[in-house]
Amino acid sequence: MIKYVLVVLLSGVVAGYANNMWGSVLVDGCVSYLFDAALLFLLFLMGLTFGLDREAMGKLRRAGVKILVFPCCIAVGSILGGLVGGFVLGIDVVGSMVVSAGFGWYTLAGPLVGQLFGAELGVLGFAVNFLRELLTIVGVSLWVRVDKYGGVAAGGATAMDTTLPVVVKFGGNDVLMAAFLSGFVLSLLAPLVITVIASVR
Amino acid sequence: MGLSREQWVVMINLVVLVVLLVAGVLFGCFLRERKQVNLGKVTFGIVLVLIFSLGFSIGSNDELLGSLPHVGLAALVISLLAIVFSVFLVMVVRKLVGFG
To answer: What's the ipTM?
Structure first.
């Protein structure tokens, strides 16, 4: 999957560069409409996938409200990490908080932050969240040593799909439900938090 | 309210996103009894469209391309801190709440 992502990203960069060199054959606005349409369709599809899943609703009800502790802590922790990172690096703290509010979902955070805050932060958003997924997989044995649910916390939004197998393998079978639901809630929160910060800025 | 035009646009976008998501869930519940379709490939295709348009906006921005080498270290610092704070907060709060 990451292979396809890199190839498409790279061909997008080449296409954009070539388009710029040859005097904007394609207008930039045209690509941004394409982006908007794709994002709206993606959100609808995510809802559809959840609605189609016979067990998803039941799982949510059985786990109870307590399970929301995980996504809440992870959301607050991620944004706090972004805040501290902004201070350490001496960059705009709102920007560093926004990129860490992608919670690891780099395919969303990169383009969305880029759209709302400019392409430069978009690149940082892509890189931060891409690295988060990578560091979750690479460092999972370390995260679960701190806490059994450490892998769930590190994975953020990716704990429901890409990092789920690793997180469960190292944390134990009983973290499965927390991982999926936490990842799901964070996937919903990521676009909301990013757009809310953009609207109050 | 004292919102600028741009802020209104962002807020309306937000409402549209939530409405579409809820519509998706309801539509999914409605279709549940029908033949199952594999949406994973469609979702991934759309994600690729998003990534292509991100690449396009990076590639057509000369200033940005020059700044790319600086982004790596900042990204590493921010992502590591985000992970570490998340892990420790989960550990502390889980003990307070008594989960698991």
So the answer is: 0.79
